Amino acid sequence: METKWLEDFVSLAETRSFSRSAQLRHVTQPAFSRRIQALEAWTGIDLVDRSSYPTRLTPAGETFHAQALEILEALNATRNMMRGFQAAGQDTIEFAVPHTLAFTFFPHWLMELRQHFKGAGAFKTRLTALNVHDAVLRFTEGACDLLIAYHHDALPLQLSGDRYELLSLGTETLAPYSKPRVAPGREGQATATDASPMFSLPPARPGQSVPFLSYASGAYMARVVEMILQRADVPLPLDAVYETDMAEGLKAMALEGHGLAFLPESSVRQELQSRRLVRASAAGRFEATMEVRLYRERPEGARHAPKAGAQALWEFLGRQSAA
């Protein structure tokens, strides 16, 4: 038994729709269906009448729904009780952050924050780096105080404005980068770097295949790159030769000259200054600008009172944003 199965079932009982509940629970519909089936296997009886639309619960399902609500309420009460024993940790603000932002944005942002926010020295931070899906899930399950995530209007996170509020922390541009070409010296040895990329978009020769370092399917950045390619004004003959779900992994491969990668600008700032990487397309072309957002649960509907440090930080950032 996993508690998320109970939460899935309660959501399904409320929405009467597998697709809507899957969206609210930030999982694919097949994955959501498998979790409901796993719960039914655990109880040993059908809880959902799948022959009707909208979805209905069976009589056993109605009974189990009431029990599931009581179980979840008891678990939340117990968790809040246990948190009462952790008074010493109330000055620690817990963040859920996707891997890319954890490596690139968060350290710099936190350093600037400590320089300007008077209360920054009064609390500690704990960061959990995850993929976007798991970071959002951790946040919605109440396992952290704040979520930092990318946002693009064409690829929004499914977070209800009635339950969560947000602040904008800035923007980030995703664009293609490549190792630069190496200009040979007088004796034919590589002594200097040329500003032109080893791989470019569009390719130097029409129809030429470009080795592509891609994000793993399902990663949020993969969806952003797919959107960029779909909106391209010319065909881009990319040949995927490597994939991972972490931008840092793609950057390492690009630095070795294995191909072209779409990377957040903040993650390549030092490499651009040292000319170890260069932009692989003209400025403003084949790129997407995303907003970096900070999310929290609305206090009026929160499952537990916000930490004093998290509240002070939110108020400070809110004033900064308004200014």
Walkthrough of the structure:
By secondary structure, the protein is an alpha/beta fold. 39% of the residues lie in helices and 25% in strands. The chain contains eleven helices and 13 strands. The strands form three sheets. Strands 3, 4, 5, 6, 9, 10, 11, 12 and 13 form a nine-stranded mixed sheet that branches. The chain has a two-stranded antiparallel ribbon with strand order 1-2. β7 (180-184) and β8 form a beta hairpin. The chain is globular and about 70 Å long. Mean pLDDT is 87; it is low at 184-191.
Quick structural gist:
The protein has helices spanning 3-15, 18-24, 29-43, 59-83, 99-103, 105-116, 132-140, 220-230, 247-255, 269-273, 308-322, and strands at 48-49, 56-57, 92-98, 124-130, 146-151, 164-178, 180-184, 190-197, 210-215, 238-244, 260-264, 278-279, 288-297. It has 323 residues and is of the alpha/beta class. Strands 3, 4, 5, 6, 9, 10, 11, 12 and 13 form a 9-stranded mixed beta sheet that branches. A two-stranded antiparallel ribbon has the order 1-2.
| Cα-based radius of gyration, to the nearest Å | 24 Å
How can the largest sheet be summarized?
9 strands, mixed
Fraction of residues in H or I helices: 25-40%
Q: Secondary-structure element order, as H and E? A: HHHEEHEHHEHEEEEEHEHEHEEH
**What is the overall number of helices?**
11
Q: Outline the low-pLDDT stretches.
A: 184-191
